[in-house]
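dumping the sequnces here before i forget
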Amino acid sequence: MSSSNWTTDFINPLKNNGISVEKISLPSTILWQIDSKHWQQFAELSIQQNVRWVAGWAEHVEDRFFINACFEKQGVYVLLRSIVNAAKPELPSQATVYPAANRSERHTQDMFGINFVGHPDNRRWTRHKAWPKHSYPLRKNFPVQGEPEPITPADMNYPFVKAYGAGVYEIPVGPVHAGIIEPGHFRFQAVGELILNLEERLGYVHKGIEKIAEGRTPESLARLAGRVTGDTTVGHCWAACRAMEQAAGVEIPPRAALIRGILAEGERIANHLGDMGAICNDVAFVFAQMQFTRLRELWLRTNATVFGHRLLMDRIVPCGVMCDISDSSCALIKQDIIQLRKELSEIMPAIDLNSSLEDRLYTAGYLSPEIAAAFGTLGYVGLSSGQDFDVRRDAPYPPYDQVTFKVALEDQCDIASRFWVRYKQLNAALKLIEQFIAQLAAGDILAEWQTPPAGSEALGIVEGWRGEIITYIRFDADNKIARFYPRDPSILNWPALEKLTLNNIVPDFPVCNKSLNGSYSGNDL
Amino acid sequence: MLQLLKKILKTGVVTEKYKAPKDNELEQLGIQIKRHIDKKFSGSIAIRQVDAGSCNGCELEIHALNNPYYDIERFGIHFVASPRHADVLLVTGPVSRHMQTALLRTYEATPNPKWVVAVGDCAACGGEFGVSYASCGAVSNVIPVDMVIAGCPPTPLALMKGLLGLINP
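..and the predicted 3d for all of it:
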């Protein structure tokens, strides 16, 4: 495509509006540095060009803050940066233009004390009561141990949105939920059964991942990245390793890339099997839950046999993978794929023809394409609401640059769409694994690590099972990590849940929530 | 509907049987658990699972205990929605400081006698996260722990073994 690089066309409107861009070359990333006073204006111009807001984070470097935001269009990413003085850390907010930037800016405000002027909602977000108001954990002078009280009190006085009127009542839910699920708080305002408003309050599983990443070695960081969210251990580990490898200029062997592809698609299949069963279970269709948990268990057992870990943790390491795959293992996987297809060909028609499922899943949890776009929703949530984007196709990386596959789409924007998109993705993943196995040629599975010079930085972008994962890494001297920021797709998908539950009934909230299935841990960091 | 019934019939009972292949110790374990539960808890124990800061990996494997292969409920072990109904708290994660009070309150809401099982390496010793401004580390730093099931995450079989250890120390 001739116009594939929107960045060249975008320079002119920027210039015409008096925004001068300093271009800095990074390995496989475009970095633009602008004056902080233009931060918001840049967003105003980029949204006119349908450029997507991807991620935002900051970094404390000596007496300055680097404020970063990442943008994408047509698979081309731009890393935008402004530098502000630590004495007066403020710049105009992009969240007024891109709702997607809202919570990231609040996170940055809580963790660095950076003031995003004009932010539409500058309540605290990640900070509850574990550290005081005017102290900022990601500043370099904040010790990793902090000064916590013996018992951190409950976060009692968060200013939730209120609703008043005859018959309006409030339902607080969480942080400890009724099921085997991560903690978070949901505040509903309802009239009768109808949900008038839902407000999420997350941050309960904030574990200080960004802070404890500082000073780690690449191997140690890969382990931590694999635990950003346990259901996406392959995805996050891959994104972090890719960022570190690009920063260090390391290229992984083709065999390692193919094995990474097999691991990532395997993770997608296991999670989709789990989710599809759970969605049906939330509308009391237990047949599907039993069948899908059974298939998921079989899949995990093959993982254990072939890769030595049911959830595939720590299989990806910097420079490659730590486990090779034998011919007999390939045969086992291929046989499993045939069996899984056969099982699904029996289960899916039974599900498709079930009128109780149809009644509960169709038109419920509607997310309009406009709202999906505004929040930058990703993965199966975006793909069911008109957001046709997949990193594997649009910004392909090895091994996806050697295969062809179809990105699944659904257009009804409801829970049923999010269910069927998962099924289509699952089928595509099975085909991809077959293609990767067919391409496996003998060779190394690990390259040699090269210690990058201090200050080396890069992005690692992969398509996790929930959607695009983007990870930023900067190295310090001596092979140590200076900054690690992983942006899980959940960070952009969670706000969509507040919208898609509106006008649904309270008893349908669990299935609405499951159809999106955001990660709490990946959001809270 | 016919397709559905056909599939159910065709799937049959996949729950793993006693005298299954020799490498399969699941059934053996289950039987022992059941015997002890019968003796000490009149046939059943109720578990309340609390994620106090985990990465969600442990939850996935605890979920698996309810799939048709393990079907832990047949041994009288079942998961309940409220700590007030529970005999055992199954706690995962390093305890994040933001969850500390919630965990303490859950513990207080659980009637005596009660047992606390710390599940996973993070719950056992802090794991990859340790103690920091945001994390209290091991569960035992916050509430008394009766036993630990290690692993990152522990497999469903390890979880079953661990529960047996609790009941038969």
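Chain B has a mean pLDDT of 87.
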